[in-house]
């Protein structure tokens, strides 16, 4: 049953009160494209909409969620909805390099901004074709669940059913990375492929054999991170994890000690990573997944989003308003509960850490603030 948990979570739809539109933003908005379906601007989005992803751009924080909703904030306390976002697909994750921002979501959607989230362009959409004469494509319509940009040009988007996309031109083109390619390293220990080998052939990583996990040949890819050494780590369902030491040119499959889904992963200096997910499971590795230690947070509530700081510090958020924090690698985790102004304990999916280690959290009740005690 858990195999589709992250897809159901990020596909969840919550009731949103509809009313008059928000006032126009201060900046000059581009003329709308009549061929594009834009997100509706609604007055209750910052407090009532499902907001799944948060990131810090150079000029402001950016949040994304259901129905193509995008929020921005310079203060991190007052949020406003951006107009003319060119999608109504649910947006699940967002990442930024300076003021260049990318967000991904359902229907294979990718949108991008070059001004810190104030205006957006549609880079990719792959809506499922349900017409009678449609040719079946197993990746069409598949939701994207996370995005990681290595710099302003190179990045990855990942999603359900082992979907992995790569860009080398800032998102102008997103290339499907086939799961039918060669994964193994050669006898000299060098990658069997490098960027010069790729050309127009997309089958250059993640073989079927390496993706096979018991009976699951296409595990959902839920989260991706980069460590201080430059290595990449993907975590997914059924304890599946993947690592790349060569910038994503080749991948090696790992198996986590826990067989359930992992929803997030944080990269630190060197080869240090922390991953978290179902039923409060948290695991830590300092050797890029060769070995793992469990972090006991004394909870069985699922953890959906996380952010790191310093030497192993983190803030993890999830079901029933749970917030798990650790100030450093040698400190024990602490569990607290976020309650909003309406005395609700929202399901939390996103978090960013402020310089004073106060938190901005998001979930099924919009965006809010939380200050952990004793951090």
Explain what the structure shows.
The protein has helices at 5-11, 45-48, 195-198, 208-211, and strands at residues 51-56, 61-65, 70-73, 80-81, 91-97, 100-105, 110-113, 121-124, 144-149, 155-159, 163-167, 175-176, 221-226, 232-236, 240-244, 252-255, 262-267, 273-277, 282-285, 293-294, 303-309, 313-318, 322-326, 334-337, 348-353, 359-363, 366-370. It has 4 helices and 27 strands. Helix content is 5%, strand content 35%. Residues 1-29 and 179-215 have low confidence and may be disordered. The strands form 7 sheets. The protein has a 4-stranded antiparallel sheet with strand order 1-2-3-4, with no helix packed on it. Strands 5-6-7-8 form a 4-stranded antiparallel sheet, with no helix packed on it. It has a 4-stranded antiparallel sheet with strand order 9-10-11-12. The two termini are 37 Å apart. Among the domains are: 1-27 and 42-129, no CATH class; 296-375, Thrombin, subunit H (Beta Barrel). The chain has 375 residues and is mainly beta. It is globular.
Taking the sheet with the most strands, its summary is: 4 strands, antiparallel
Q: Strands of the biggest beta sheet: in what spatial order?
A: 1-2-3-4
Question: How would you classify the helix and strand content by structural class?
Answer: mainly beta
The total count of strands amounts to: 27
Poorly predicted regions: 1-29, 179-215
Q: Radius of gyration, Cα only, in angstroms? A: 20 Å
User: What share of the residues does DSSP label as strand, in percent?
Assistant: 25-35%
